[in-house]
User: Fold this.
Amino acid sequence: MQRILVVEDEPAILESVAYALKRDGYAVSGAGTIAEADTAVTGVDLVVLDLMLPDGSGFDFIGKLRRDGLSTPIIVLSSRDGEADRVAALETGADDYVTKPFSPREVVARVRAVLRRVGAQPDERAASTGELPLQLDDATRRASVSGNTLELTRVEFDLLGSLMESPGRVYTRAQLIDRVWGDGFAISDRTVDSHVKALRKKVTEAGGDAGVIETVRGVGYRVTDRPIGDQEP
Assistant:
């Protein structure tokens, strides 16, 4: 589980951002000052940082981290939306810049994008499924099983892609709705289940094992390398 440090002195903002990140599967710690952040930053995968803090400037904190040789990605939160501030933050060593007011879901999306980018993840993702390798190519948006092409809809591809970001990890239906549909859609758990059922059918028709997409009762779904046969949502 990737660890995120949120540095924000406004408790309501800290709580909302932390809640959204935890809901997306991240481990989250918080800090209200630069001093607290300095002791908590070791070992985290990403920092979400407010620029205006009680004991100093976020700019100075970014500079210190970079001078210390810490390459941990940083996403800045700021009410200052001028181009000069954005440029200054990025040149100091920030990886992204989000202006207030913002949606916590936007911060989650930015976190996900930055972690993908700095992780230099390959375009092709694969989960070993015994004799039946399941693969996705993000660049071409093509999927296959046992070398046979899967003809997937946009939703089916994004659903499978979300599950394959971390093979073995269980994603709740709420997390999959957030990742695949996002805001503005009245999507129910039953809709997720129906798309999973259609996805499994296509995997089977292409020569794969439908059990590669495993139901975790009462929780959600995961891609597994130990298919156990037919699965039902």
Summary: Confidence is low (pLDDT under 50) at residues 128-132. DSSP finds eight helices and 14 strands in the chain. The first strand starts at residue 3 and ends at 7. The radius of gyration is 20 Å.
